[in-house]
Amino acid sequence: MTRSYDLPNQLTLLRMLAVPVLWVFALLEWRTPLGVGLAIAGSTDVLDGFLARRMRRTTRIGSQLDSIADMVLVVSIVIWLLLIRPDLFREHGLILVLWSALGLLTLAVGWLRFRRFANLHLYSAKAAGVIGHIFAIYMLLFDGPAAPFFWVAIGAGFLATTESLLFLLLRSRVDEKTGTLLRRSGRARASAP
User: Fold this and answer.
1) Long-range contacts made by residues 35-44, C-beta under 8 angstroms, separation at least 24?
2) 60-84 and 7-27 are packed helices; what angle lies between their axes, rounded to 10 degrees?
3) Long-range residue pairs from 171-179, CB within 8 A, at least 24 positions apart, any chain
4) What is the mean pLDDT of each successive set of 10 residues along the chain, which is 193 residues long?
């Protein structure tokens, strides 16, 4: 029997299990099912975290599962767009390579400083994820040009990745519940008057 408090983790697992099906759609170049499937997968990303907080069932394993599912889906989206919309990469390849390099640097800093890939759930990353999903869905469903929506999506991605990198460089510990670098850490808040 399924317990209601398992629902957030089940949604995360559903997102992970959807990726192989979406890969089939991508390889067959079935753009509409891929775009719709991506919209559904993206909605589980928003919903799992909301339900976990609402039900007060946030766990470290749930946070890690969410981060892994997000990473697998984001990498897949980039490859799907490369397969289906190579024009995007011909037009904007350099900026995409720079953003990818910044992302890899962020992962490396997290590993070197904290011996793990930090499960940061920053507001900027959430906003960039939503914008990125909408952009990818648009690019899969429509043949129109990427600009100017591309610049909004890549700008949000650069801001979120930069905030994550700065967070990892400037903080002495990873607090996955800190929504922004601008907020002081839990200990500093507790001692503030």
Assistant:
1) 35/137, 35/140, 35/141, 38/77, 38/133, 38/136, 38/137, 38/140, 39/133, 39/137, 41/15, 41/73, 42/129, 42/130, 42/133, 42/137, 44/11, 44/12, 44/14, 44/15, 44/18
2) 20
3) 173/114, 174/110, 174/114, 174/116, 174/118, 174/119, 174/120, 176/60, 176/63, 176/118, 176/119, 176/120, 176/121, 177/58, 177/121, 178/122, 179/121, 179/122, 179/123
4) 66 93 96 96 84 76 81 91 92 93 91 80 89 94 86 95 92 77 56 40
User: Which of 84, 82, 76, 64 minimizes the C-alpha distance to 140?
Assistant: 84
Q: Which two tokens stand for residue 158?
A: 């650069």
The encoded tokens of residue 96 equal 């995409």
* pTM for this model (two decimals): 0.82
User: From CA 45, how far away is CA 166, in angstroms rounded?
Assistant: 24
Is residue 39 a contact partner of residue 57, using CB atoms and an 8 Å limit? no
Q: Which position has the token pair 């946030």?
A: 58
Residues with Cβ within 8 Å of residue 140, at least 6 apart in sequence: 31, 34, 35, 38, 80, 81, 84, 85
Q: Which residue has the tokens 């719709």?
A: 36
